[in-house]
Structures are given as C-alpha cells and as structure tokens.
Design goal:
Number of helices: 4
Structural class: alpha+beta
Order of helices and strands: HEEEEEEHHH
Distance between the termini: 87 Å
Largest sheet: 6 strands, antiparallel
Number of strands: 6
Helix content: 40-55%
Strand content: 15-25%
Length: 189
C-alpha cells in the first residue's frame, strides 16, 4: 500500500490552519465592534454611580494627583473624581476580599463625610460574603469622617457580620483608604 504524504499529513494541517485564521479574524472583528460599546456602557455605569453616591454634584472631573496605595496590588485607590461644584469626591477603591479583588466606590462630601458606598465588582461567595454588600449594611458608613482602624473588628463603629468578616474587612479597609485619599488631597477644592 502506497502512502500519500500530502493527503495524510499536509492537507489536514492546511485545513486546520485555515479554520484557525478564519475564526481568529471573526473574533477580531467581533472585538472591534463590541469593545467601544462595552467601554461606553462601563463609563455610563460609573458616571451614574458617582451621581448616586454624591447627589449634590453637578458633574465630575478626574483627579490627576497622587493616589493612595495602602498595600501594593491589594488595597489602593484606582481613581478619584471630584465634583466640579466642590460638593465632594467619589473614589474607586480596590481591596483584597475572599474571592479576590473587590472594587467599590465611596462618595465623600466636601467635609470629608461618607455619603455612600457601592460595590461595583467582586468574586465573593453569593449568599455568604455578599451579606455585607447590602444597602443597609453599607449605610452604616454614611456620615462618618474617620474610621478608628483599618480592621472592621477593631473599629467599634460598624456592626460587622460574623461569618462574612473577610468581605466586611475588605469593604471597611476600602472606606478607610478612601478617607485617607480625601485627607491626602487636603479635602476637595
């Protein structure tokens, strides 16, 4: 029996390479079409959240100064937007939680008091770690201008939920970091 090398080995490789090229091109086109839409929607969601957290703000401008880093790659301020009318600021803070990175926004008025906290993204256990993400739990931070500790357990101002303390600690550390950012900026001008 005579072997045909081209039919047995080369032709299947050529066909697979062609299939890979077509699929890669299709993915690139799909990414090119969807990426601007995703970016626009992400920005719109962030803008809406900033407005919810700082109701007295008219519009926002991104702060270009130094950002607080409490722990490199674990707890840091990702960005800060200040209200153009001087009403306050909203900081996006990333902290390390049970499931990994937890991204939150913290609103602070022009006196340095917390106006609200909202969790934007997390990978914590639904039903357990997310108990600390409810509006009523996060409302405990409203009006505070200072936290006594980086740790929710040691602070004494927040009623933390036992069994979900890793998430609660991550949130608390995030608010602590946002307050540190406000102080580092010397308030909002």
């Amino acid at each position: 029996m005579k072997s045909n090398t081209y039919k047995e080995y080369i032709a299947p490789v050529v066909v697979l390479v062609c299939i890979c090229l077509v699929i890669t091109a299709a993915l690139a086109v799909t990414y090119g079409v969807t990426n601007p839409i995703i970016t626009k929607n992400t920005k719109a969601t962030a803008d809406k959240t900033r407005t919810e957290l700082l109701k007295d703000a008219d519009s926002f401008t991104q702060y270009k100064g130094a950002l607080v880093v409490e722990e490199k790659d674990s707890v840091y301020v990702q960005d800060v937007y200040t209200a153009n009318n001087g009403a306050g600021m909203v900081a996006t803070v990333v902290t390390k939680s049970f499931g990994g990175a937890l991204t939150m926004m913290v609103g602070l008025d022009n006196t340095g008091a917390v106006t609200g906290v909202k969790i934007m993204d997390h990978a914590d256990t639904p039903g357990l770690g997310t108990k600390n993400m409810t509006t009523s739990y996060l409302a405990q931070y409203k009006g505070l201008t200072k936290l006594n500790s980086k740790s929710v357990k040691d602070d004494g101002q927040i009623n933390y939920i036992s069994g979900a303390s890793v998430t609660g600690s991550a949130e608390h550390y995030g608010v602590y970091t946002a307050l540190a950012q406000y102080n580092k900026m010397g308030g909002v001008k």
